[in-house]
Write a structure and sequence with these properties.
Number of strands: 20
Mean pLDDT: 90
Shape: globular
Number of helices: 17
Structural class: alpha+beta
Helix content: 25-40%
Largest sheet: 6 strands, antiparallel
Low-confidence stretches: 1-34
Length: 541
């Protein structure tokens, strides 16, 4: 199974007066504290910035600047292109030989070797290190011994990883996985220097990678300063002097700072500003499709939501949500109603297809009937939970609940549970403490249909926070992964989606565009397919 990352937490927030919520950013004004520095809005990551422990977008933004892996996804097309890898070869889609390019090194001048990858992957897989992205390595032979379901590991390394020489290592997978090389652009597969292991605490204070930037300083709750690494030898050298990431607890404040000239870049324009943004920014506003879907996931670990017949209740709640109205009135042209559990940005060739059908269409009468047939809402009510600091989530949560309440006609049976910070929300989500449907927006790690299904719904997957488990779904995913014919693999993944429609472990809400606005100081600003700014290519002045 795959693990996964960052749900891109975008959407809409509570309507407060602009500037009412204080910015947590640093005191630097304008575009940073030096020539060529880009200042950008940000949110504190949930965990320390270990590549195998970061599976959310705020931390992912930093890792994308600090590290380069075997592959890198083309910012324009999403294609997985070789970066540190010279070549990745296999004759059976199960055993791979990976050869590295010459000249790569970490910012502390350590060379990047085959051992740098093997050590990092073994660390990420080791159950004792409690890394969120451990399941990304679960396809490798020996993972189960290093990451047992209980107890200590029986080994220190995965037997499926073998270093041949400084530039070459081999990987043995448990089963055929034809697109496995395309997953290697994800940050969990980044290499790590020896310093990570010899002085772990010091590394966490100031992470050392092999990418175009280094960490200058980080103050939790305030911001992080990254500076261009002059010794970087990769093909995508930074076009600016660095990036100052400033923590905001409300994107409306970030937008106000942008308009006032106190910030260079906002990479999630709040919903309240969508009616103004074109007049405010003109062609400095970016709005483009992205590999993002917003969903509501049910806590199936709670018996009240997982008893017999509750799939009809879950389907009924889906039918009570007026996606068309919400996306038009709140999001204007930055969202579109979801019709499956993937992303419209994948396109038909990539596996996007209407797999939800009428279950994602608003029908109050059908909603009532399904909920009644399933035994009714647990306790007669439903509570929707999300963080409300990054993105602007309060508005759409209110709209969803209003839609459900209007459809059912039973008063305020749907209420919202706003969680103040992203970190608090993620901690509640990842510790399985939520008792009602919760926001589980997903930003793809790589542009494959597999990445929108396996990490979230495969039994035991790293981002399966609702604890959905279905043997038939797992079997279809395994078969799809082993299929070398792309069209046949996609068809099996779509068969797996049919099970999601029947069981409704999560409700697809809408597909999300990437949106950003930037100051007149900047040029060459682009978002990649994951809606993240391509920071290294931004020019200042």
């Amino acid at each position: 199974m795959r693990g996964a990352t960052h749900a891109k937490w975008a959407a809409c927030a509570v309507a407060v007066a602009l500037g009412a919520t204080a910015c947590g950013g640093g005191s630097d004004g304008g575009g940073g504290d030096g020539a060529g520095i880009v200042s950008s809005s940000w949110g504190d990551p949930q965990n320390p910035l270990e590549p195998a422990n970061t599976n959310e977008v705020q931390g992912g933004k930093v890792l994308d600047m600090l590290f380069r892996g075997l592959k890198r996804y083309d910012p324009k097309t999403g294609e997985a292109k070789d970066m540190v890898a010279e070549k990745i070869e296999s004759t059976d889609q199960k055993n791979f030989t990976i050869t590295l390019k010459d000249g790569w090194k970490f910012s502390n001048d350590e060379p990047v070797t085959a051992q740098s990858f093997v050590d990092a992957w073994n660390y990420g897989a080791d159950v004792r290190n409690k890394q969120n992205n451990s399941p990304f390595f679960s396809d490798i032979v020996g993972y189960d011994e290093l990451h047992p379901e209980s107890g200590d590991p029986k080994t220190k390394t995965m037997s499926g990883l073998v270093v041949k020489d400084a530039k070459t290592f081999t990987v043995a997978l448990k089963e055929k996985f034809s697109t496995w090389p395309d997953t290697l652009g994800y940050q969990a597969f980044s290499p790590l220097p020896k310093a990570f292991f010899t002085d772990h605490a010091a590394w966490l204070d100031k992470p050392v990678g092999n990418g175009p930037y280094t960490v200058d300083s980080y103050t939790k709750g305030s911001g992080m300063k990254l500076r261009t690494w002059d010794g970087y030898t990769g093909p995508d050298k930074a076009q600016n002097g660095g990036v100052d990431l400033k923590v905001y607890t409300d994107n409306n404040t970030a937008y106000t700072d942008l308009i006032a000239g106190n910030l260079d870049l906002v990479d999630d324009v709040p919903a309240q500003q969508l009616k103004n943004v074109k007049n405010d920014l003109g062609d400095r506003y970016i709005n483009q499709p992205a590999l993002i879907i917003q969903t509501l996931t049910f806590p199936l670990y709670d018996p009240r939501w997982n008893k017999a017949g509750m799939e009809k209740v879950r389907q009924g709640i889906s039918r009570a949500i007026n996606r068309e109205e919400i996306t038009k009135q709140i999001f204007q042209d930055t969202r579109s109603p979801a019709k499956d559990w993937t992303s419209s940005a994948l396109g038909e060739k990539g596996g996007y297809k209407d797999m939800c059908g009428e279950l994602c269409q608003y029908d109050p009468a059908a909603a009532k009937q399904l909920i009644e047939e399933g035994g009714g809402l647990p306790g007669g009510k439903v509570t929707v939970t999300s963080n409300v600091d990054t993105g602007s989530h309060r508005v759409w949560m209110d709209a969803v609940c209003n839609s459900i309440n209007n459809a059912l006609g039973r008063g305020p049976v749907c209420t919202v549970n706003p969680v103040g910070t992203f970190a608090d929300f993620r901690n509640q989500q990842s510790s399985f403490k939520l008792t009602g449907p919760f926001r589980s927006g997903w930003q793809g790690d790589y542009p494959l249909i597999q990445n929108f299904l396996e990490p979230l719904y495969y039994t035991g997957a790293s981002s399966n926070y609702g604890k959905f488990s279905n043997k038939d779904f797992d079997k279809l995913v395994d078969e799809a992964n082993a299929e070398s014919d792309t069209a046949k693999a996609i068809a099996k993944f779509q068969d797996a989606e049919k099970i999601l429609a029947a069981q409704m472990p999560s409700i697809p809400l809408w597909y999300q565009n990437g949106s950003a606005g930037y100051s007149e100081r900047l040029s060459n600003v682009e978002l990649n397919q994951f809606s993240v700014p391509v920071y290294d290519q931004i020019k200042v002045g």
